[in-house]
Amino acid sequence: MATGEAHRIVDVENVKQYTFSTEPVPRLSCSDPEAEKRIANDQPVVLTDTNLVTSALHWNEAFLRTHIGDGKFTVFTSDSHKFLYYDDKKLKFVPNFKPPTRHLEMTFDQFIDKIEDKNNSKWYYLQQGLNDTVGTQIVFDFMGFNWSWITEQQKKNGWGTLTSNLLFLGMDGVITPCHYDEQQNFFAQIKGYKRFLLFDQDMFECLYPYPVFHPHDRQSQVDFDNPDFEKFPKFRNLKGLETVLGPGDVLFLPTYWWHQVESLPGLGNTLSVNFWYKAGPVEKIVYPLTSQQKVSMMRNIEKMITDALNNTAEVAPFFQNLVVGRYT
Ligand code: SIN
Ligand code: FE
Questions:
Q1: Is residue 318 part of a domain?
Q2: CA 212–ligand 2 middle distance (angstroms)
Q3: Which of 168, 180, 255 most suits a substitution to test ligand 1, by most atoms within 8 Å of the C-beta?
Q4: β-pair type (166-170, 175-180)
Q5: What is the pLDDT of residues 278-326, one digit of tens each?
Q6: Residue 261 in contact with ligand 1 by CB distance below 6 A
Q7: Least-confidence region, from 7-21, 83-97, 199-213, 305-319
Q8: Which residue from 31, 42, 143, 193 has the highest number of Cβ atoms inside 10 Å of its Cβ?
Q9: Is the CB of residue 306 below 6 angstroms from any atom belonging to ligand 1?
C-alpha cells in the first residue's frame, strides 16, 4: 500500500482507507535533478536531505515550553479530531454558519496544560507564526535553518517573498481537512508523522470547493469519511498522491494543490514548520493556460461577480443562468 512504502517506519495499520486511490509522492534527494525539475514544474516532491530544519530537530513540547517565551499563541479547538478552517472575515455572508472550531489565544504553558489534561475531551491544535517574541534559543535554531538552500529555491523559481513560518503543534490524530492554499509551501516535519493526501488542480471539479464568499472558501465540501455521492458524484473520479512525512522530511506543496493533512494516530503529537512564499509574477503567458492559472482566474471571476451583485443569494442563480443550457 502506498503509504507503507512511502515511509519505512510507519505501520500501515494506522492509515485510514478512503474511497479514492493514490500513488506515492516521489521521495528524492534535494541534489537529484528530478527533484529540481519537479519544483520548477509545480509538482509535489518529498525531499529527504535538505537539512532545512535540522537545527530544530531537538524541539519538543518540553523544550518549547522552556524556550518559546510567554507570548500568546493562536490555538484552534474542536470537538472532534478534524479542524476545518474558516475565515472570520467571511462570517457575515452566511448568517446561520456554525463555526466547527474556535480560535483561542493562550500562552504555550496553557496550551500544553490543555493537551495533557486527560479529563479534557476537546482537541487542540496550535498554529502560530514564528515571531520575535520567542526566546533566544529558538531564535538561534531558527537562524540555523538551511536558509541558503531555501533562498536559492525561491530565487531559481522566481517566487515572491517569504510571508510566514507557521509552527504547527498538533495532538496525536488531528486532521486538517482537504483544502488548497494560495502560496508556494515548503512544509518541514520536525517531530511525529504526518500523512499528506494531495490532489492536483484538475481534481477541482471532483472536490467541490465552497463558494469563494463562504467562510470555508478553499475547503472541499466533501466529507472524506462519508462522501455524499449523490450531491458530489464526481468525487468518485478523485485520484491523488500521498506520502507520510517524518522528522527531517520536507514536502514541496505547490500553490493550489489540494491537501488533507493527518497526524497519524498512535504515533504521538506532531510538530512542523512551514515556509510560505508568494507565488512569482507571470513573466510571459503561454497557451494553453496551466490548471493553476485557470483556478486563479475562476477565483477572480467568482469574486468579481459576487462583488458586483452585492448579494450572495444572487450568485448561484447568476452562474446558472450564464451556464445552464448554453455551456452544459
Ligand atoms: C497541517 O499541517 O495540519 C496543515 C498544513 C497545511 O494545510 O498547509
Ligand atoms: Fe494548507
A1: yes
A2: 16
A3: 168
A4: unpaired
A5: 999 888 999 999 999 999 999 999 999 999 999 999 999 999 999 999 9
A6: yes
A7: 7-21
A8: 193
A9: no
